[in-house]
Amino acid sequence: MSTTAPPAPKRDDAPAQLRSWHHPQLPRRSGLAALVIAVVLTSALHAGIGLALVPAILAGWAVVVIGLPVLSYAVEGRRKAFDRLITVIVSSAFALAMIPLVSILWTVLKNGLPVLTPEFFSYSMRNVVGEGGGIYHAIWGTVLITAATAVMSVPLGLLTAIYLVEYGGDGRLAKTIRFLVDVMTGIPSIVAGLFAYALFVVFFGPGVRMGIAGAVALTVLMTPVVVRSSEEMLQLVPNELREAAYALGVPRWRTIVKVVLPTAMAGLVTGITLAVARVIGETAPLLITVGITDSTNFNLFDGRMATLPVFTYSSIMSPGVPPEPSIARAWGAALVLMLIVMVLNLVARLVTYFFSPKDKR
Amino acid sequence: MTDTSTPSPPRGAAEQGPAKRRLADRVFLGLSKGAALAIVAILAGVAIFLTAEGIPGITASPDEVKSGETFLAFVLPLVFGTLWSATLALVIALPLAVAVALFVTYYVPRRLGHTLGYVIDLLAAVPSVVFGLWGMRVLAGKLVGPYEWLEAHLGFLPFFAGPASATGRTILTAGIVLAVMIMPIITAIAREVFRQTPVLLEEAALALGATRWEMIRTVVLPHGRSGMIGGAMLGLGRALGETMAVAMVLSASGVVTFNLISSTNPSTIPANIALQFNEASGLTVNALIASGLVLFVITFAVNFAARAIVNRRKEFSGANA
């Protein structure tokens, strides 16, 4: 900017213009001040007069959403006032969106924590009526079915991603597959479950329930997620690395296995972990393909298995005669499920953080 | 990277090398191409198996299935409920999601915005059965009071005609839970689109004296319109197919009504499958699978359109940049 001299001459009349440009403004931190006023007012109404929490918050909010723009309109004019109104609304929308998250975390922790005893993790529900029992069988079912899902969908998804990035390029087949994978991400989970059921009915007859059918259903849901994330990661591998390998006379497949995949490893592991986190909480497909049982079943190919999500569902929907213990177990299982999902998400982030190629070099 | 030197064959073995190499390469290409085609096969398989198992349910006579109705009479109210609840969810979630995306992109410092984005993504990671649990045990109870208020004060509108449900487990509650579930997806896509807004245009608007909102209205929103439409349709697809939250929250009786707060509510296809499947037998199972096929077709169409819109936008912005 400093290099070009021309646009500087009319210095003399600047003050006059500046005066007209500088509209009066509210102090810089007035938005923050409004927030503080709202909080003070809300707590005063709630604690002082004893108004219920929700009306008190609404009152505090109304003061800000009306007061700040009106004040601004008086001082700064219409456009600034509208800008402030939108700012308040957008911020409120964010706060509103946080309420469910906080409420879910809070209720699951509050209701689930008291249930988590050593017995809860080491007992199944076999011969349990009323209190006692646990989720031993459901944990094993979830672990086995998720493992079987990963065994099927990780190679399938990874190889597809390799094809899309390394071989397909922008060809018609690659484009079509990319689009179909996108569409496949949107298959409702219950439809995936119905597909697995319809597939297994052909071989095993009506009423079939087995763990592997659930794994097939989850594979339909997990594979597209693996493809998308792996594709993204493989595309990040610099082309120079591939070219260097080719220049050394390394065959293409060896380049992929020895150069491309190791370079992208951290990202691939992250993507796969997130995909596992996503399917581990799926309920609907397992409900109709695997069902629920009270005993521990280690055999994926024989009969019903319990899984954490379905256990949660059936404990709350058909709690039995004294319902309280069953409902408590549902909250406990939900908490365990949430913890597993959160830990998987955390692991995925940590993998990216510690093993990203940036740190390697 | 040191191992790249070991496999490269000496020049003397050139006669053997290339042939072997080509074979290994061909096998690897075959494997990966096979995997890619397997994905297409799976997608086709979903359609084929659902159709094969569903057709007996469609043609079944009324007295052979549990509902005691023809397939059309059985599925149409469910289609209505599915579309209605998903529409409710979208109407609630879309403005909220766009506002949240604007907030984390333009109204907070960049670094804080990233963190808040993660927090929103956290909401997407909550399993649907937990949403269902929360919806039926916490949210529904909290909404009984507001529903009674709506019935008393806005009862003249058909939506709030009442009588207000005593449990709060109504289609509106289900719609709110669905909205919470699809909000993160729409937000994520909206954030992505907003991030792609050319910074030059934003700065030009601000330099012309636009306020932040005027900049957003004249630059960001027009630029991101088709992306937001695509995101909304992806969210709609999610809401259409969501099973557990609706099955657990809604106390359904399979009626067709626009009443949002009464205790008789329309059911949805996925929720109905989840609730009926384990007690069903014979042709009733086929009828349920056929209703799943209907759901598959609806969501497929919605997702297809959404992806087409999102992808078209991608190319458009690429040409523009």
If you had to describe this structure to a student in words, what would you say it looks like?
- The complex is a heterodimer of chains A (361) and B (321).
- Chain A is an all-alpha fold and 361 residues long.
- Chain A folds into two domains: 25-114, no CATH class; 122-360, MetI-like fold (Orthogonal Bundle).
- Chain A has helices spanning 14-21, 30-49, 53-76, 78-112, 118-122, 136-168, 172-185, 189-204, 211-236, 239-247, 252-280, 284-289, 308-317, 323-355, 357-360.
- In chain A, helix 10 (239-247) runs antiparallel to helix 11 and helix 13 packs antiparallel against helix 14.
- Chain A is flat.
- In chain B, helix 2 packs antiparallel against helix 7 and helix 3 (110-125) packs antiparallel against helix 5.
- With 321 residues, chain B is mainly α.
- Chain B has a single domain (60-320), classed as MetI-like (MetI-like fold, Orthogonal Bundle), CATH 1.10.3720.
- At the A-B interface, helix 4, helix 6, helix 7, helix 8 and helix 9 of A face helix 1, helix 2, helix 3, helix 4 and helix 7 of B.
- Chain B: Part of the binding-protein-dependent transport system for phosphate; probably responsible for the translocation of the substrate across the membrane.
